[in-house]
Amino acid sequence: MTYAYLNAWIEEMQDFSGSIEACFQLEERLIMILKGGKKLCFVLNPGDSFLYLTDDNLFLDAAKPVMQNLKNALITGINLCATDRIIYVNIMHRDIYQQFIPYTLVAELMPPQANAILCRKQEDKLLIIDAVRKYTYAENPQRQVLPGLVYLAPKTAFIPDKKTVDVPYPDGSQNCNTYFRKRFEDVIQNRSSDQKRMSQITQLKREIKKLEKKLKLQMQDLAEAAKADYWRDCAEALKPNLKSIVTGQSSFTTVNYYDADLKDITIPLQVDKNAHDNLHHYLKKYHKAKNGYVIIGENIAKTRAEIERTEALLARTEAGEELDLNLKTGSSASQMIQKASALDKMLSLKVSEDYQIVVGRKAKENDFVTTQLGRPHDWWFHSRIYHGAHVLLRCLKKKEPTPELIRLCCNLAAWYSQAKHSANVPVDYTQIRFVRKPRKAAPGYVTYSNHHSIYATPMDIREIREYLKL
Does 436 map to a domain? Predict the structure, then answer.
């Protein structure tokens, strides 16, 4: 972010203060939870770094607690470095002895590596306590960022541009904080989504090349298997002539007893093997070709089907569809394809770009929905007392679902249960992070806690689609 925009944001935050309840690190953001529901977010993106204040509800299930010593500390002021894109957040904390300890959170917002460094003021120096990114001279020959060291500002040739920023801002916002918040939500998050999609496209293209290479080898094996009769002829022709073959011969010509005209057949020999070894070689090839022809054909059909599925998934991804499959880091393309295929076979309803409803109607589908597809912030529904389907409300953009959407999902869980013909069906719902599958439990069996319960009116997925006018 440019110096002028950061300066405009600082001017808006001149009188800002707040009490810190907790600090979390979520991907490229450091988030301070303040009393009163506000959040001070440090966006540490390598190409675009800034701060903004928001009161939006944020999903912090996957966030990591950091900088625990700032709990209950008070932000007393925020200012900008006069020479570079560094913001100093001044913090005062009272310890158990009622002594005030001054801290400074240094937000270095310049490329290529933005950072947030917590320092304690000690006379005229800043002593590093913690940092989002720590590194040594091996990674940066200019300075180290490690706990216990004195903080040194990075040396750059940057010249600040202190011009005033025109209002409204490029997106039409009337203040800089709103502009920064919208920029993160509309630009940086979308950019991250595009990078993820491009990575998926690269993985799928690589998988298609691997499958095509596999298919080529299988076609070669099929061509070899089609020569089963030839391998048999060679073996049978060698049997009565074993004493006539000398080690080192490259070929042997004899009568083909399987030919109606008894024509001669020239059999290639392996020069490093004797007659018996050459005979066993041809018998082995014959039996392998005879037994493997059908199997190789089945494998070729499976490989072609995999290529078709992968190409279809690649076309969907290239068309802009975001494959949100809750894959673990380092997952292969084959795992992505397998999970996407399983999801396509399930009963689902895309409510909007933000939400998708998935229903598991069998025990194995229930396991897939709950233990593989669901993420901690997604919502899980199941009829109480009665056996029924696991219904998952996927929050694709990590937004809080509306009460109406929660009620419709409860109605759907009631329909896909043994009480579908009842008027009022008790349904429990909770977030996936509170759902557990015991070890060695039967398919579809889970336990859950922190749940809410309502009495729902059963509605099938067609009625819900009509109700939502989809």
Answer: yes
In this structure, the answer to whether residues 424 and 301 fall within a common structural domain is: no
HEC string of the chain equals CCHHHHHHHHHHCCCCCEEEEEEEEECCEEEEEECCCCEEEEEECCCCEEEEEECCCCCCCCCEECCHHHCCCEEEEEEECCCCCEEEEEEEEECCCCCEEEEEEEEECCCCCCEEEEEEEECCEEEEEEECCCECCCCCCCCCECCCCECCCCCCCCCCCCCCCCCCCCCCCCCHHHHHHHHHHHHHHHHHHHHHHHHHHHHHHHHHHHHHHHHHHHHHHHHHHCCHHHHHHHHHHHHHHHHHCCCCCCEEEEECCCCCCCCEEEEECCCCCCHHHHHHHHHHHHHHHHHHHHHHHHHHHHHHHHHHHHHHHHHHHHCCCCCCCCCCCCCCHHHHHHHHHHHHHCEEEECCCCEEEEEECCHHHHHHHHHHHCCCCCEEEEECCCCECEEEEEECCCCCCCHHHHHHHHHHHHHCECCCCCCCEEEEEEEHHHEECCCCCCCCCCEECCCEEEEECCCCHHHHHHHCCC
54: containing domain: 3-165
Number of domain units in the chain: 3
pLDDT digits (tens, 9 = 90+) for 126-150: 999 999 999 999 988 889 999 999 9
Task: Tell me, yes or no, whether 98 and 153 share the same domain.
Answer: yes
- Which stretch of 4-18, 180-194, 297-311, 351-365 has the lowest confidence by average pLDDT? 180-194
Residues 69 and 125 in one domain: yes
| Model confidence pTM above 0.70 | no
Q: Same structural domain for residues 215 and 142?
A: no
Asked if residue 114 and residue 12 are part of one domain, the reply reads yes
Of 451 and 96, the structure prediction assigns the larger pLDDT to 451
